[in-house]
Amino acid sequence: MLTLHCPYCGVDADETDLHAGGEAHLKRASTGSSDDAFEDYLFMRENPKGVHFERWRHAYGCGKWFLAARCTATLQVFGTYRAQTHEPPQDIKDAISAQRPGWSWGNFR
Ligand SMILES: [Zn+2]
To answer: What's domain 3-99's superfamily in CATH?
Structure first.
């Protein structure tokens, strides 16, 4: 079972207490952007087998949204962090690099 640490209330929450919210760090298509850019924003997702950044909600806890970095193949969690960040904290990127040398995800590495 997947267990994620909620960065707001400090609880290690089981998967059944959480609600998945899809990919993290999406860049919203701006006003006046092309149809292709808007289509990419709405429908195109990374969906990797490996390192992934996701949105989760502590639905049966504090109710807040947070972000998690984990491996989709092994369920290894590299860390969780508050949702109001534009990119993963450096300590989480370092933890991923230590476990998965050469990884990249979108513009992150
Ligand atoms: Zn919480």
So the answer is: Folate-binding superfamily (3.30.2270.10)
Q: Ligand 1: distance of its center to the CA of 62 in Å?
A: 4
By the 10 Å C-beta count (0-12 exposed, 13-18 middle, 19+ buried), 84 is classed as: exposed
In this prediction the pTM is 0.89
**pLDDT tens-digit profile of 49-96?**
999 999 999 999 999 999 999 999 999 999 999 999 999 999 999 999
- How is the chain split into domains, by residue range? 3-99
CA of 69 to the centre of ligand 1 (A): 16
Interval between CA 11 and ligand 1 midpoint (Å): 6
User: Which residues are near ligand 1, the ion (C-beta closer than 5 Å)?
Assistant: 6, 8-9, 58, 61-62
Closest CA to 49 of 22, 69, 77, 72: 72
